[in-house]
Structure formats: C-alpha cells, structure tokens
Amino acid sequence: MKVLLLKDVYKLGRAGDVKRVADGYGRNFLLPQKLAVLATSAAITQAERIREKANIQRAIVNKEMDTVAKQLDGLTLVFPARASETGKLYGSITTQMIGEAIQAKSGVEVARRQIDTQPLRVLGEYKVLIRLTVDLIPEISVIVHREGEAVNLPARAIVEAAPVEKPAVEAVPAEGPAAEE
Questions:
Q1: Does the domain made of 69-160 have the CATH classification 3.10.430.100?
Q2: pLDDT, tens digit (0-9, with 9 covering 90-100), for 84-138
Q3: What is the DSSP string of the chain?
Q4: Into which CATH architecture does domain 2-45 fall?
Q5: Where are the domains of the chain?
Q6: Helical axes 47-72 vs 95-106, angle rounded to 10°
Q7: Pairing between strand 88-93 and 120-122?
Q8: Fewer CB atoms < 10 Å away: N or C end of the chain?
C-alpha cells in the first residue's frame, strides 16, 4: 500500500513523503490516526504543500524544544539496584523509572514512550536516546550499579535516581535542657 504521510512518523518518514507500507499498518494505524492518506494522484499533487506546512510547523516545535534538549543532553542518571554475582539485575530499570528520574533531576517531563531503550537488566553504563521531536534526540547516560557499592562516576553532575535507605541508627540528640523539650 502506498501512502502520503500527513505528519512525521517515527522510523517511517516525514510529512509529505510517499511511502510503501504494509497493508495492515496503513489500514489499521496510519489511516485511522490521520497520519497518512492513500497516495492517489490527487493526494500526490498536494504533497509539496503538505511538506512546506510540515517544515514550518517542525521549525516552530524544534525552536521551542531546543532549550529542553540542551537541558537533557549529557545528563547522567545513576540507579542503584540489587544484582546477582554475574551482574544480572533482580528486576529491571524501566523507561518509566528513567522518565521519573529525568523529571526529578531537570524538571522536564518526558513520556516513557519518548525514551528509546529496552528495560535495562544488567549492571553497566548505557547511552539512552530521548526522542523529543524527529530532529531533536538528546542522549543521556544511565549508570546501573550494585546497591551498596561505590561507582566510578564522571565529573559531571549526578543524580541518585532511587533514594538510598536511611541508616537504622538515628542521630542521638545532644543532652541538655533543649533536648528534653
């Protein structure tokens, strides 16, 4: 099936492009979501107008999101996690957890669908892409280390994504008249 894209579609193309897609993908997703129309001769004549409108709209959105991309680019997140001797985690670091950590660190809300990674299930350092727009894709570093162990961190600003548990012993107040109140 040949379709004319009305909007930018991730991993498919930009608005105004004519693409060949699987029948089910076009019929069940692109057409109902109004992301594309069938590539008829009448629709193809409008492709240039669609492409120009999309370029203007894309430039406006990119200009707005540029400051957000600069905030996120180079951000480093650290996740302490329980892991086996082989380095395999007893759970996983999900895109939802990464999104919450980004919001805690930078104040930018990122949807989990914009985070381009699979759940992290092994200790190590990962490069994760955040898809803000088709053109703006900042890269962040995610470091997963074993709970209770020190981690070699770069000299950049670091955020502990999961709070470290408080020690079992609380600080004892100083003795004296102020302590009894």
A1: yes
A2: 999 899 999 999 999 999 999 888 899 989 999 899 999 999 999 999 888 888 9
A3: -EEEESS-BTTTB-TT-EEE--HHHIIIIITTTTSEEE--HHHHHTHHHHHHHHHHHHHHHHHHHHHHHHHHTT-EEEEEE-B-TTSEEEEEE-HHHHHHHHHHHH-----GGGEE-PPEEESEEEEEEE-SSSS---EEEEEEEETTS-----SS-EEESSPPPPPSSPPPPPPSHHHH-
A4: 3-Layer(aba) Sandwich (3.40)
A5: 2-45, 69-160
A6: 70
A7: antiparallel
A8: C
Q: pLDDT tens for residues 1-48?
A: 999 999 989 889 999 999 999 999 999 999 999 999 999 998 888 888
Joined tokens for residue 6: 């009305």
**Contact, 132 vs 50, CB < 8 A?**
no
Chain center to CA of 164: 24
Which residue type does 70 have? K
Distances in whole angstroms, Cα of residue 65 to Cα of each of 37, 117, 138: 28, 21, 11
